[in-house]
Specification:
Monooxygenase; 70% helix; globular; 0% strand; Helix Hairpins; single chain; 181 residues; mainly alpha
Length: 181
């Protein structure tokens, strides 16, 4: 594998089109192929420069794969391809109705253990959050395709909130299930 890989974007590395929903099976298979080609163990008898390059390529492939397989990271990366920097963001303004909805959701999550069947409530919340995330990804795809980058960026920020709530719900489910054992 040549060092031209360093000039490719993550989608190109995996030979998939830039998309909000790449074929995850194809990504996994291509990742496995690439890892076999560039694994540092294959270069054990090579000179130091070749070993270093193999390590750098392996690191790049790992970073690319981990970015593309996680929806919010993938969307953030797609924005960077269009010059939008999500990391250096200082803008804290956001849709007030969405923020209010998130505050109410956090209160519901915090009070879930007082419910008669907290696991049922958490399962419902988990399904709702999954649907919200899917709808946001679809909205992102439309905005991104139309080059409405500010709206796309706002969608990613909302997805970050949804992901955090999903993690909280998942952690509480796991905690409750552990207590039941």
């Amino acid at each position: 594998m040549s060092n031209s890989i360093f000039k490719q974007n993550y989608f190109e590395i995996f030979s998939v089109p830039v998309s909000t929903a790449p074929n995850l099976k194809q990504l996994k298979e291509k990742n496995h192929q690439l890892q076999q080609q560039v694994h540092p163990d294959r270069f054990a008898n090579s000179d130091a420069a070749q070993k270093r390059e193999a390590m750098q390529i392996t690191s790049l492939v790992n970073e690319a794969y981990n970015t593309l397989k996680v929806p919010v990271a993938r969307l953030q990366y797609m924005l960077t391809l269009k010059g939008v920097d999500m990391d250096g963001e200082t803008d804290t303004s956001m849709d007030g109705a969405f923020l209010m909805q998130q505050m109410e959701l956090r209160e519901e999550i915090a009070d879930v253990k007082s419910q008669s069947d907290p696991l049922d409530v958490l399962d419902t919340l988990s399904g709702d959050l999954k649907n919200q995330a899917q709808n946001l990804v679809l909205a992102f795809a439309d905005f991104y395709q139309q080059d409405e980058l500010e709206k796309s960026r706002e969608i990613v920020r909302k997805l970050q909130f949804i992901n955090k709530a999903q993690k909280e719900v998942s952690d509480i489910i796991e905690q409750i299930e552990d207590e039941l054992i």
